[in-house]
Amino acid sequence: MPSLSPTYANMNGDSQLHAALQQDRWHHRHMWIVTGPAGCGKSSVAEYLAHELSIPYIEGDDVSLHFYAPGDPPLTGSIGQYHTAAAKQKMSQGIPLNDLDRWDWLIRLREAAVTRLSPSASSATKAHTGVVVTCSALRRRYRDVIRVAAYEHHNVAVHFVYLRADEAVLMKRVQARQGHYMKSTMVHSQMELLEEPEQDEQTLDVLEVDCSPALSKVQKMVVAKVREALADDV
């Protein structure tokens, strides 16, 4: 597996990256990573959040970039497939992905998100204030790959919106889906793989939301938490 340098875990007991994340804290460009296992509602929540904030949205499991920034031309084409065809085939067959399957996907997704925070094609001086990304980010090491964006770009703040629910709730939702490549058997394997954000992560950059209620309620709770976090960035 490729080494991650620098990583959240190996940088002087977390202190160096923590300092990088806090440096020039005000007026960040914000990367909102909506995370959680299959069935938690990542795509629906992320799309709603992007619409409410009028910022770009990247569907990490798809080939499309959904774009909601006012004043910019809509971007409807593909910007590259984040998951490889082999990885999608694995998931459609109920075969769990391994770290090698995920590594390039996470890096490409991180770079795509940073790109969407850059000045737009229609205005060389305009930079987007945020981007919403869906990414399961089940393990801490996967979240660390995304966190590198804040280390490399000190005016970028990475936030993880973790949608939490019991396995039974997620299984019921996935079983109700029609024609989705993610099979219900993947819920159990993802729950086994899941490393829920610990207290130090929650203090640093994680917003946790119970996604068991109705989708409309979850969407509103997420927007409220995000707006509260943004209120501190003045």
Helix content: 40-55%
Shape: globular
Helix/strand-derived class? alpha/beta
Distance between the termini: 40 Å
Tally of contiguous helical segments: 9
Integer average pLDDT: 76
Cα-based radius of gyration, to the nearest Å: 17 Å
Largest sheet: 6 strands, mixed
Count all strands and give the number. 6
- Percentage of residues in strands: 5-15%
Strand and helix order: HEHEEHHEHEHHHEH
Spatial strand arrangement across the major sheet? 3-2-4-1-5-6
Stretches with pLDDT under 50, minimum 5 residues: 1-13, 20-26, 63-81, 120-125
Explain briefly what this protein structure is.
The protein is α/β, with parallel strands linked by helices and 234 residues long.
Write structural notes for this entry.
The chain is of the alpha/beta class. 43% of the residues lie in helices and 13% in strands. The chain contains nine helices and six strands. It has helices at 15-22, 42-53, 85-92, 99-116, 140-152, 167-175, 185-193, 199-204, 215-231, and strands spanning 29-35, 57-59, 65-66, 130-134, 156-164, 206-210. The protein has a six-stranded mixed β-sheet, sandwiched between helices. Helix 2 packs across helix 9, helix 4 (99-116) packs parallel to helix 5 and helix 6 packs antiparallel against helix 7 (185-193). The model is unreliable at 1-13, 20-26, 63-81 and 120-125 (pLDDT under 50).
Topology of helices and strands:
Blueprint: H1 15-22, E1 29-35, H2 42-53, E2 57-59, E3 65-66, H3 85-92, H4 99-116, E4 130-134, H5 140-152, E5 156-164, H6 167-175, H7 185-193, H8 199-204, E6 206-210, H9 215-231
Helix pairs in contact: 2-9, 4-5, 6-7
